[in-house]
Amino acid sequence: APPEAADGRPGPGHEDFRPRIVPYYRDPNKPYKKVLRTRYIQTELGFHERLFVGVLTSKATLSTLAVAVNKTVAHHFPRLLYFTGLRSAKVPHGMALVAHGDERPIWLMYETMNYIHQHFGSDYDWFYIMQDDTYAQAEQVKALVTHLSINQDVYLGRAEEFIGGDEQARYCHGGFGYLLSRSLLLKLHPHLDSCRNEILSVRPDEWLGRCIIDFLGITCVSQLQGQHYRTYELAKNTEPEKEEEEDFQAALAVHPVSDMTLMYRLHKQFSRIQLDRVYQEIQDLQMQIRNLTALTPAGEAGVTWPVGINAPFLPKSRFEVISWDYFTEQHLFSCPDGSPKCELSGASKADVSEIIESAVEQLNRLYQPLLRFSKRQLLNGYRRFDPTRGMEYTLDLLLEAATQKGHSHVLAKRVSLVRPLSKVEIIPMPYVTEATRVQLVLPLTVQDLDFVANFLDMFAMNTLDTHDNALLTLLFIYHPYDAQRVGQVDVFAGVKAMVGELEKRYADVKIPWISVKTEVPSQVKLMDIVSKKHPVDTLFFLASVWTEINMEFLNRCRMNAISNWQVFFPVHFQEFNPALVYRGEQTASSNTDFLRDGHFDRHSFAEACFYNSDYMTARTKLAADILDRDEVLESMEIFDVFLHYSGLHLFRAVEPGLVQKYTLRSCNPRLSEELYHRCVLSNLEGLASRSHLAMALFEQEQANST
Length: 706
Description:
Elements: H1 41-44, E1 49-56, H2 65-72, E2 80-84, E3 97-99, H3 105-120, E4 124-131, E5 135-136, H4 138-146, E6 155-157, E7 159-161, E8 170-172, E9 178-181, H5 182-188, H6 192-198, H7 204-216, E10 223-224, E11 227-228, E12 231-233, H8 246-249, E13 253-255, H9 260-293, E14 325-327, E15 331-332, E16 342-343, H10 346-367, E17 371-386, E18 390-403, E19 408-420, E20 438-444, H11 449-464, E21 470-478, H12 480-484, H13 493-505, E22 513-517, H14 523-532, E23 539-542, H15 551-560, E24 566-575, H16 578-581, E25 598-600, E26 608-611, H17 612-626, H18 638-645, E27 649-660, H19 673-685, H20 690-705
Parallel strand pairs: 1-2, 1-4, 2-3, 12-13, 20-21, 20-23, 21-22, 24-27
Antiparallel strand pairs: 4-9, 5-13, 6-9, 7-8, 10-11, 14-17, 15-16, 17-18, 18-19, 23-26, 24-25
Helix pairs in contact: 2-9, 3-7, 11-13, 17-18
């Protein structure tokens, strides 16, 4: 430790890091200037991404070896680009290619380093350069950079001597890949032009190594900060499956890879090696957990199964008990639609088949060679999802056990399995802001006239008074009979008068309306009319007349609807019938917004947030599928259009900011059977909770008995 000074304070060379509060001070004589914040917090804090990978390819190998690299290791790296000297090269699917237009090797290297510095020099800490005839263990490379300090100038790879050059100087062989630090790249960039003009070389890796040595005085190393860059040179006619040398198994990079098949075989072999290492690490960790648990107060009884996985969730009350779902090989007895029995299909069937196969495999692994098990039948199956650990299974299997002598016996065996939750990944999402204008679309029928006034009042109070960036379009749906009499009696005259009053009160606000004549107000047909009257970049919020518009929800609509990526279908909160819930008692106060008695109406798909361009794309695919059969549209909702005819994410989530007061909806019997059935269910489940309905029945029986 550094020596201390005479007074006991830290001596020279000892830094005492202590936080201090910097008081905010603004000069009153200077005009106030709004501080512009960065888009992402990591930009403001100066964070960089960890690793950028560049792959050098050519005309002869772009569609072969480069594709093999892309299929084997590209998805393991956070960012990977391919560089070639071809002009207007045809890019294989799923690859990001940069074409420099000159196939000379030195020029390709020069342009590649320039491009990386210009576009990624300020975003990444490490730059890994490799050729397309190199197989790199992606996970090993990523682990390597996590153990290296970013404050040093690093030129790491397989060090090779220059032909006829200085014995001390080394360059990194390009065939085995090499690693450059961000600090080295920044220092090297000003000298690239000089290197191109002054250094003559045939090999691009030698040219780059000579440039770094001559202008920065840094030579290639194969070992740095205790980390080794291990490589393996493949011989001709090598069989990767038979390679058992330690150098091969520990290699970060293997070169040369002569063809695509060899690349895939290498990837398979290294994946197997990595998997064996992981299984061995798991066994070692489980053994350590057992040994340490024996020293705890709970002793060996504290070891949970499987070892290393979180213990099962312990409910504190009967309301927290996680129920088990019963299934057989053909049927599931806990169905998504609430029915007591449904056919096992799709992902659930694949899940059950896989878990049964895994159970038999594990039994054979435990008892072989003494016994060999084969499945006869699944007697009973149970599964439940525990959010603390994963999916749990209990299987009663009817098995046939065969001995080594050929004797067989049928027996029943109960097994328990767990499919644990794996590594949680954050899905990258496009950047969106809360400044987007929202275009509200409100379809109105004659049955909705009693609720329009409240909707317009809430819209004026929560959007117009607050100057929220939102517009409203009304869609008047006339019955053919009312449309014929519109000259004498307009059923929507009162609504139009309210709109006129709003436009007078807010001079800069215009609320347009569209009139439609139809007996069956199909959601898709109505949206077709609205879509044609708005730009393609319009963000629509399809509302219902019972919706209470507020700024909180509109902001979530803007954030959750992403153009060409995601559409948002919120599940609104529906209040129960106050006559059944409160039965003459005082209703809940208005300041308990979310605590009002009600439920989230999962049967309703009336509200939606989406971009016009996404709707038009999906609608075009639908039109090509149904041709001229427009009657099909009457049985569809906009949710169905996006679900079946778009490749977008459909975000369906409960929305506490979207509250609707109770009302008995009118269900149009001319709609499809499914839509009518959903409307009826929504009305029935929206009456009250089970406890409220039971209390109402009890009071009615009491009144009848007296």
